[in-house]
C-alpha cells in the first residue's frame, strides 16, 4: 500500500532541536501530544501494511509566520529512507513561490506540491498567486495535492477550501494532476463532481471528522456516494490516504479493508494509482 | 526507608505486543540493595497494561488474541471522535478497554534483597495501541 497523505510533524528527531517547528506544530497545526521517534512512524507503516508514505509539509509563512516542516526537512527524511516520498510546499503569497517550487522539485528531488488554502489563506482560483504554481507543476509533470474541506486547525478557514473551485483549475490545466484531499469533506459531492468530470483529478481517502476511519469511510464512500459509483467511474482516480497523525494509519487501512471493494479497485486505490502519480 | 523511582522508556513495534521486563526488574531490585520491602511496577499510559503470566510464546499469543476477542475493534464505542485536547482522532477505545481489563500496575514483595515471585511468573509490559514510545516506572520501597 501507499499512503498518499501523511504529515511528518511529530517526529522527535525533527522537532527536538527546532523550537520554531515545535511552535508551528502546536500553535498552528495544533497537535498537542508528544512527538515520537522516527522508528515509530516506520513501525506504524509496517503495522498498517504500508510500504511508502507521501510526506506533506505546509509553508504558511505569510498567514502564520511558519513552516509546518520545511521542504529541506522533508527532503532529508526522504533522502534517508526510500519509503518516504517527499512533497514540497511553497507559500503562494511569496513572489518567488514558483521559483522555490521549481528548486524544491529539481534541486531537492521532491515529487509534488502540497497546498493548504485553509491554512495558507489564499484562493485556489487566484490567477496571480495560484496559477503560476499550477503552471510549474504542469510543466514539471508533478501532481498537486490540495487540502479541501474542513481544517481541524483552528487557524484554518474552510471557506478557502471548496473543491468546486478546482473545476476551473482542472479546465485551465488539463495536464496538471490534482489530488483533492479528504474527499473534500463535508463537500463530498463537489469533490465527486470534479473528479467524475475531469480525469486529471484524484480523491484521497483521508476522511477525518467523527467515528473511526471505518465508520467515516463506510458512511462517505459506501452510503453517501455508493461503492458502485467508485467501481464504475473512479477506479483510476482514488488514492489511499490516512492523514497521519491526525488519524492512525493502521485503523484507516482497516477501514478500507472493511469495504467490499472489487480486487481491481482495491489494488488501484491502495497502490497502482499512487504509483502512476508518483 | 529507601524509595527509589526509575523510569524506563521502550519503543514498541506492534499494535498489541507483550514485552518481557522481568530481567530488568530483577536487576534493578538487586542493585537497589533493599533487603525488605516492595517493588511496584506501573505504566504511565492508559492504552497499555501490566500483567504477570507464564513466559511462553503461545500464551503470549493467547493473551493478545483473547484481549482482541473480548474487546473487538468492530463494535461501536463512544470514544470515537476528534479529541481537541490532542488535535487528533480518538479512535482507540478498544485499546483503552483492553488496558482496563489488564490493569496498569503489578507489585511484588522483596525479601532478603530478592523479588518474591513464582518460578514461572514473568512480568509483561503490554502494548495495546502501538507502535509507540512508552514509559514504565519501577518504585523500590523498603530498607
Most extensive chain-chain interface: A-B, 32 and 21 residues
SS-based class of chain A: alpha/beta
Q: What is the CATH-assigned architecture of chain A?
A: Alpha-Beta Barrel
Classify the oligomer. Answer: heterodimer
Largest pleated sheet of chain B: 5 strands, antiparallel
Large-scale geometry of chain A: globular
Structure summary, number of beta strands of chain A: 10
Order of neighbouring strands in the sheet with most strands of chain A = 6-7-8-9-10
Q: Kindly state the mean pLDDT of chain B as a whole number?
A: 97
Q: Which blocks of ≥5 consecutive residues of chain B have pLDDT under 50?
A: none
Q: How far apart, in Å, are the first and last alpha carbons of chain A?
A: 13 Å
Helix content of chain B: 10-25%
Q: Class of chain A, according to the CATH hierarchy?
A: Alpha Beta
Order of helices and strands of chain A: EHHHEEHEHEHEHHEHEHEHHEHH
Helical stretch count of chain B?
A: 3
Q: How many domain modules of chain A?
A: 1
Provide the CATH topology of chain A: TIM Barrel
Characterize the biggest β-sheet of chain A.
Answer: 5 strands, parallel
Q: What is the beta-strand fraction of chain B? A: 35-45%
